Amino acid sequence: LEISKDEFMFKCCDSSHHRHPNGKHQELREFLSEHSSVPLDMHQFPHSQEMLLMKFLILRQFDYAFHYKRVRLQAPLTGVPIQPGIFKGTYGTHGVELIQIEYIDNCAKLRASKLSGDPNVPSGQVTFEVVLQYSMVLTVQQQASITALDAIEVQAADIPCNSV
């Protein structure tokens, strides 16, 4: 056990107590169902679950060594579209991921950093940034479905966000 003010780590001495009682296959099935929004019996299993299988195998390689680090959250802000904080989302074949959203550059940008990493974007790295200089005003119909959102032709507006 190692301890500091903002992080600690430990390793289990007897990992046999952490193994699934019904074996590795059941442990994998439960891991996949917890981390995926795709049913396990789909014919696309080798393609849609390949990254999750990699994640499962990598986590098992750590042999139950744990590292915890304090997450510092930005204080609530006024006049922002989404409050800073921790969000859960589905990242395709990577499964469920946690990201931390914060505002930078005097709230001119929103930055999302991965709390739970994957092979493409490790934990602590930026997964996306949004420039908030200009806003988009969407109609109710444009917000009705993902298909409607995808159909929007994005154009730079001349109206700064803080004047909408």
UniProtKB/TrEMBL annotation:
BP GO annotations: protein ubiquitination
Pathway as given in its UniProt record: Protein modification; protein ubiquitination
Keywords: Ubl conjugation pathway
Name the UniProt record assigns to this protein: Putative f-box protein 31
